[in-house]
Amino acid sequence: MSKTTIPSGGLGGGLPSSLTVGSAVAEDTKVVFDGNAQDYHIGLDDSADDLVIGKGSALGTTAHIVTDENGHVTMPLQSAFFAVLGTAQNNATGDSTAVDIGSWGTEVIDRNADFNASSGVFTAPVTGLYVIMSNGLIQGIATNHNDNQFKVISSNRTYDTLGEIGSSSTGFNGSLNQSFCGVIDMDANDTVKLQIDFRSGSKVVDIHDGFKFSGYLLG
User: Fold this and answer.
1) Using alpha carbons only, how large is the chain's radius of gyration in Å?
2) What is the DSSP string of 122-150?
3) Backbone angles phi, psi at 182, to 5 degrees
């Protein structure tokens, strides 16, 4: 594949109104933006028939945005995580103990390595909006538990759910499926985690091993 370098001042006669890169043969073609500290490229990955925008001068090595021939757009390096607790946190709370949901045993997804499975803390790599989700079963809730709280705690604010829930409530059997989904504003290096706090009873409330926690960078 031939290479043409356009100087920073441009071509003397200017560029044509229509420019074709490549000659319809089986080869990758690209345009490289040669920066001072970092290079970027946009090009055709001919073997996959994908249009790729990425970092560096080598096509396909660090793809940021990929568009296929059917119009599907993916961002292979966009920060995202999905974890399952794996092991129940038994007798976690119930006596006003605020407990972080941590020690996530199964990391199904941790793109960009921003989720700490041991602590259950996700750290935002860049400033932006993030979709944060959780779902799982809380068990062992007794009649004397009240003022219950499930919290999604981020650096900028805390999102509280639940309230006066006890097993004495009509039709309540001591177990509760808790879900959260929201868009959270985060600055670079901000964190988000899950916390549970049941009060006015004894420490018998459990967090089921199937509890799930996930999120991704929306933009």
Assistant:
1) 25
2) EE-SSSEEEEEEEEEEEE---TT-EEEEE
3) -160, 160
Span 86-113, pLDDT tens digits: 999 999 998 989 999 999 999 999 999 9
pTM, two decimal places: 0.84
Just give the CATH number of 80-217: 2.60.120.40
Q: What is the pLDDT of residues 141-181, one digit of tens each?
A: 887 887 788 999 999 999 988 766 655 555 566 888 999 99
Q: C-alpha angle 51/57/61, rounded to 5°? A: 65
- The sign of the CA dihedral 40, 53, 219, 110 is negative
**Residue 117 DSSP label:** T
CA torsion, points 188, 59, 19, 37, in degrees to nearest 10?
50
In terms of Cβ atoms closer than 10 Å to its own Cβ (0-12, 13-18, 19+), residue 111 is middle
| Region of 96 on the Ramachandran plot (φ > 0 left; ψ -120 to 50 alpha; else beta) | left
